[in-house]
């Protein structure tokens, strides 16, 4: 799982986006990656970044 966050995201701040990573590490679960969208990424910018990054990630899974 990938979670995305921007430093100025008004809906999903970094501490919320990174919580699944810490939880899975503590519980020994599946890999979760928190991906920063940038220091100027608000919620809309974060969404656009995430869509583009997910496309690359899904394409890698097909190889």
Can you describe what's shown?
The protein has 63 residues and is α+β, with helices and mostly antiparallel strands. The protein has one domain. The chain has helices at residues 14-17, 19-27, 43-62, and strands at 2-5, 33-36. Strands 1-2 form a two-stranded parallel sheet. The two termini are 18 Å apart. Helix content is 52%, strand content 13%. It is built from 3 helices and 2 strands. The longest helix has 20 residues, at 43-62.
Number of helices: 3
- How many structural domains in the coordinates? 1
Helix content: 40-55%
Low-confidence stretches: none
Strand residues, percent: 5-15%
Give a quick summary of the entry.
The protein has 63 residues and is α+β, with helices and mostly antiparallel strands. It has helices at 14-17, 19-27, 43-62; strands at residues 2-5, 33-36.
Outline the secondary-structure elements.
Elements: E1 2-5, H1 14-17, H2 19-27, E2 33-36, H3 43-62
Parallel strand pairs: 1-2
What tags apply to this protein structure?
63 residues, alpha+beta, two-stranded parallel sheet, 3 helices
């Amino acid at each position: 799982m990938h979670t995305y966050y921007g430093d100025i995201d008004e809906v999903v701040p970094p501490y919320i986006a990174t919580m699944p990573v810490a939880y899975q590490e503590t519980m020994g679960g599946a890999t979760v990656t928190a991906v920063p969208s940038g220091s100027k990424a608000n919620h809309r910018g974060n969404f656009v970044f995430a869509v583009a990054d997910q496309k690359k990630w899904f394409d890698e899974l097909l190889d």
